[in-house]
Amino acid sequence: MKIRLLGATFKAGSVVTLDDLDASFEESSGQLVTFGGCERMYLSKRLEEYNVGLLISIKNQRRFCTLLEKPDGFEVDVHELEDKTRMMDFNYFVQSRSTGRALYQYYHHSCALSRFAAFLGERYSMLKHRRMEAELQSAGGQSAPVRVQKAIRSSFKGQFEWAQMLSAKQAGELIEQLEEVSRLELKFATFGSNESDFRPLNEHVQRGNIDILFKREHRSSPTLRGKVRSLIQRVSPANGLIEGRDAEGVKQFVRLADNIESFGEFDFERTSGTMKFDLKKFHESKMIGDMIEVMKENRALFDYPEAA
Fold this sequence. Notes:
Helix content is about 30%, strand content about 35%. The protein has helices at about 20-25, 115-140, 145-155, 170-175, 220-235, 270, 285-295, 300; strands at about 1-10, 30-35, 40-45, 50-60, 65-70, 75-80, 90-95, 100-105, 160-165, 180-190, 210-215, 240-245, 250-255, 265.
């Protein structure tokens, strides 16, 4: 089984930032929470220019099966976990503090990137609500002037947003798996032959944008998915965004970026062999070091500000 490194972008408001979210995680690091029908533990730590994390998803399963090869065939055996032992999946996370772009480590049956992003989003909303309520109370609560209450609420309007980073080819493959496609945003460094009316403006253009919101009744159409996939592979945008939903109704965001094919693959058996450590020292694990190295090798994608 292969472990893959997935690229993602994360954004938050200016009043409650991604650093604020990470600081709140660090304060509660190691606490058990329930999310997505599963007990989970998220550990977080700040390492210089990066926020690093480890998500542990704990399974209720107490028994597991093995297949034993014998001279006359195979035998199925059932084993039970020892007391105080629980099965788990793990996902590492490394995020650039300056840009919010990150790597997420994933393998089959572990927590999907979209679910992890939903987990972060839920915690961000809770933190923002606590901060806003505290500020409202310090201003006098319900007895504060209405204009003051409105101003405080308005200052907390920033939302948590995320998207997976994929090449046009990879995005095309993912589009076919979506249940619906709701929005397409493309950004061009210059306009090509398919936008001939705009080509005379090329020498003056810093970035050209096309933003399309699809009709609700067409969003689940296989024809639409095929057309979107064909378009992004044909016009080669500098970058862009695809918004949709998967078969479970979970929102999916795909951020297009140039020349991304893979950020790395690791063998599960070899990687899991390095996983025996005290959770308090998770940030010293080899996988964290490998992921930081990958991000440093791709600084243009992870650490440099996006062109305006």
